[in-house]
Automatic annotation (TrEMBL):
This is aldehyde oxygenase (deformylating). Its main location: endoplasmic reticulum. Signal peptide: none annotated. The chain crosses the membrane at residues 31-51, 57-77, 114-142, 258-284. It comes from Oryza glaberrima. Belongs to the sterol desaturase family. It catalyses: a long-chain fatty aldehyde + 2 NADPH + O2 + H(+) = a long-chain alkane + formate + 2 NADP(+) + H2O. It is a multi-pass membrane protein.
Length: 559
């Protein structure tokens, strides 16, 4: 998955979607079935329990049986599966995935799983019955099957050319990912299991196999137009990445799965290794909208590390390295996600814009669009809002914009009130009020978690932070963090962005996309912010949709 995200040796450049991810969620069926069948064989076949660790003659018999009967029978069974009667009832389920992933290799109906198990048993059982079977031969054969099966569906070319140049007959004995990829795109060619010689014998070899192999192996260098630079959040976010576990990354990361607790030791180890050896951002996904290509890059750092004062320099160095890398590659826009744009870390990116005044890549913190989303989430007819926390650029901009629109903004923190008052135009300062007694129905801010206990029943909370709230009251309404639905034309979307629902993207990330779509030349970092109305209009124009429709405060509409 990391290689397909990098795209260099990609074979089939088409879009994956949530439908395929959901269909392939049953990948563990094969593991469970095979485990049960192997246990059954162990229970009823005495020789199973008497096998030595290794027998050379038994291993040779397994190799010969696979090369001969197994490959031959699979070839004709596979051709039979492509007859319209069997294809429509069984094999079409597997071929629904034109853009294959390693796990696609085991996505089959139950009847096919049984047939494949019986087929591969031809190589395993005879040596056991003959008394020359061995544990290691069986394990190595099963490992070979799984590796070759996954490799053939990985959708990037990795078989080195020197292997076939050194031993030319090898091309009849081992297939390549591009070879099997043609079977999924052309359907009527390249039927072989792992050894293509039967396709040569029966003239079903796709004529473009060699050319596709050469082209995929050579690869293409793609420069993304837009990069979104994010980072790891919690330990389990390792598996929520596109390159982690697809069935987990296709759901919001706060949707827990029962087996996640078993992965904690590995997640912890990966965090330690990333902390020690992680020296640069890595590609986690690629998207496309209109003519623009986008990539998501992640820093090998976690939320808690951003709170460590001694880590700030190291993290800023990683961000700087990613920015310079993007600049060198010709990336047009780089948006800073999550804590990569923290004001206390680098001044919302201003540190890098000042350090490198000739940067060609535009740095975007997305504050303009995030503010616009918050403002357009406020119910129509609102006269008062309570501001709980004004620590972020978006919260301050929202408060100032509300005062300019004639909406009274109430604070109960004197320090925050004094800071905001100095920023609000003098003619609108009357709409900014310090009070410990008034509690309006609309609460906005980046510190809702700490303050919501004092809110009256029926309060509507509108967060301005990128991170979700940790707790919620049943008698109140909570709107999403600033985010929008993405256009249907955006391709290769099959993962959720952190805790957001499917096909929803954070406003901070969308802002970078809009910057490229509109061809804007300015940085949006530090105190600089894009015009709120301008960015909102651009988002609507390009097909991004708000998560909530503006409604009257007393209309009873479900927000």
């Amino acid at each position: 998955r990391y290689q397909t995200a990098r795209r260099k040796h990609l074979i089939v450049d088409r879009s994956l979607d949530f439908e395929q991810v959901d269909r392939e969620r049953s990948w563990d069926d094969q593991i469970i079935l095979n485990g049960l069948l192997f246990y059954l064989g162990y229970a009823i076949i005495p020789n199973f329990r008497l096998m030595p660790v290794w027998r050379t003659n038994g291993a040779l018999i397994t190799i010969l049986l696979h090369t001969g009967p197994v490959e031959f029978l699979y070839y004709w069974f596979h051709r039979a599966l492509h007859h319209h009667f069997l294809y429509s009832r069984y094999h079409s389920h597997h071929h629904a995935s034109v853009v294959t992933e390693p796990i696609t290799s085991v996505i089959h109906p139950f009847a096919e799983h049984l047939a494949y198990f019986l087929l591969f048993s031809i190589s395993i059982l005879p040596p056991i019955f003959m008394g020359c079977g061995s544990v290691l031969a069986g394990v190595l054969y099963i490992t070979y099957i799984d590796f070759m099966n996954n490799m053939g569906h990985c959708n990037f070319e990795l078989m080195p050319k020197w292997m076939f140049q050194t031993f030319p007959p090898l091309k009849y004995l081992i297939y390549t990912p591009s070879f099997h990829s043609l079977h999924h795109t052309q359907f009527r060619t390249n039927y072989s299991l792992f050894m293509p010689f039967y396709d040569y014998i029966y003239n079903t070899m796709d004529s473009s196999s060699d050319e596709l192999y050469e082209r995929s192996l050579k690869g293409t260098k793609e420069t993304p137009d837009i990069v979104h630079l994010t980072h790891m959040t919690s330990l389990k976010s390792t598996y929520h990445l596109r390159i982690g576990i697809t069935s987990i990354s296709s759901k919001p990361c706060n949707d827990s799965v029962w087996y996640m607790w078993m992965l904690w030791p590995v997640a912890w180890l990966s965090m330690v290794l990333a902390w020690i050896y992680g020296s640069s951002a890595f590609v986690v996904e690629r998207l496309k909208l209109k003519k623009f290509s986008m990539q998501g890059w992640a820093l090998p750092r976690y939320n808690f590390q951003y709170g460590l004062s001694w880590e700030r320099k190291s993290i800023n160095n990683l961000i700087e390295k990613a920015i310079l890398d993007a600049n060198e590659k010709g990336v047009k826009v780089l948006s800073l996600g999550l804590l990569n744009q923290a004001e206390q870390l680098n001044g919302s990116g201003e540190l890098f814009a000042k350090k490198y005044p000739r940067l060609r890549v535009r740095l975007i913190d997305g504050s303009g669009l995030a503010t616009a989303v918050v403002l357009n989430s406020i119910p129509l007819g609102t006269k008062q809002v309570f501001l709980c926390g004004s620590n972020s650029k978006v919260t301050r901009a929202t408060a100032i914009a509300l005062c300019q629109r004639g909406v009274q903004v109430i604070l109960n923190q004197e320090k925050e009130y004094g800071m905001l008052k100095s920023r609000v135009p003098e003619s609108r300062a009357i709409y900014l009020k310090f009070s410990n007694d008034e509690t309006p129905q609309i609460w906005i801010g980046d510190s809702i978690d700490d303050a919501q206990g004092r809110a009256p029943k029926g309060t509507i909370f509108i967060p301005t932070s990128q991170f979700p709230l940790k707790k919620a009251r049943k008698d109140c309404t909570y709107l999403s963090n600033p985010a929008m639905k993405i256009p249907e034309t955006m391709q290769n979307v099959h993962t959720c962005e952190n805790w957001l629902p499917r096909r929803v993207m954070s406003a901070w990330r969308i802002a970078g996309i809009l910057h490229a779509l509109e061809g804007w030349e300015m940085h949006e970092c530090g105190d600089d912010m894009m015009n709120i109305e301008k960015t909102w209009s651009a988002a609507i124009k390009h097909g991004f949709k708000p998560l909530t429709k503006p409604c009257s405060l007393n209309s009873g509409t479900d927000l």
